[in-house]
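new request in #modeling-help
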Amino acid sequence: MNEKCGITDETLVDYVYDEIEDAAKRKEVEEHIKTCAECGAGVKELELVKKTAENADVDFSDDIWDVHRQGVLRKLAKKEKPMRNFREVFNVKTFALAAIILLMSGVGLQLYRSFQATQEQQVIADKADLLQNIDIIERLDFYEEISNI
Amino acid sequence: MKHREETIHREDLEIIADIKAGKQIAVDELIRKYQKRIYNTAYGLTVDYDEAWDVSQEALVKVIRYIGTFRGDSSFWTFMYRITMNAFYDYKRRQKVRAKVGNFTDYENDDDKRAFEITDVIDIEMDYEQKELKEKLKAALGALTEVQRQVFVLKNTEGLKIREVAVVLGMSDGTVKSHLNRAMEKIKKTLGGVQP
Ligand SMILES: [Zn+2]
C-alpha cells in the first residue's frame, strides 16, 4: 500500500500476525505505524479482518451437536456393514476403474517423489501416501456404488 | 479459539489407543472433543452450513475408520485436518457426479434425519455490527480461491503460524504468505465499509 514509506502490505500483514522475527525490524514497524497515518489505518483494517475471522466460529447448542454426533455414529455403523457377495464387489467395471486409479495415482506419486529432497518433504510425502490410499479406498467404495445401480 | 497444537496431547493418545482397542466410549469422546473444530474447518472450506455439516460428519467417520494409520509422528490435528480436506474434495467430486448423472443413489445422504434448518439453530448472540461483519466475512470468504480460503482459515480460525500452515498444506512459507496476503487484501476490501 505504501511504497513511499517503504513499508509493504506484506510487512503489515506480518506485523498484525506477529510474524516479524527480527526484533529490531518489528520495533521499527511498530514505531512507524504510530507516526504514519496511512500504515496506521492499514494495520487497523487488517486487525479488523483478523478479529472478525477469529470470532467467526459457528456454534450450536449441545443438543444440536448431539444430533451431529449421532449422525456420525450412524454413518460409521452403516460403513461397517458386511461386504456384499463376491460377484457384486469384484465385477469387471470396478476392477477396470481400480486399475486405472491405481495407475494414475502411481504416476502422480512418482512425479511427486522425484521432487522431494529434504527430510521434511519426506514426512509430507508419507502423509500424501496415506491420503492417496484413503482416497483410493473411498473412490473404490464410490465406484462400487455406481456400478451397482 | 486459539488451538495451536504442535504436539500430540497425552489425552488424545489415550483416546486413540482406546478406539484402536475397540472401546465405543472413546469414539464418542473423540467426536465430542473435535466435532466443533472439524465442523468449523469444513465450514471454512465450504462456506455453507449444510455442506459443512455433511463434510464434517464424513471427516469424523474417516478419522475414526483410519485411526489405525495414525502413527503419532505428526500432530493429531494435522492428521484430522488433512482428512477433513480429503472429505471435502470427495464431497465435491460426488456432487459433480450427481449433477451429471442425477440423483441415482442415496449415497451417504438423508442419513442424518435433521429436523431443523441449520441457520435456525446457530448460536447468534451478537450485536448488529458484529452480525453484519460476519455476514460480510462469509461473502468475502466465498469469493476467495480455495487455497486462499484454506490458508486464511488455518491462519485465523486455527491461529497457526505461517510455518505451520506451510507444513499442513505441504507448501513453502513463501507460497503461504502470498496466498495469505491476497486473501487479506480481498477481505479487507469487503469489510472496509463496516466500522468496528
Ligand atoms: Zn507508512
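bot summary: The radius of gyration of chain A is 26 Å.
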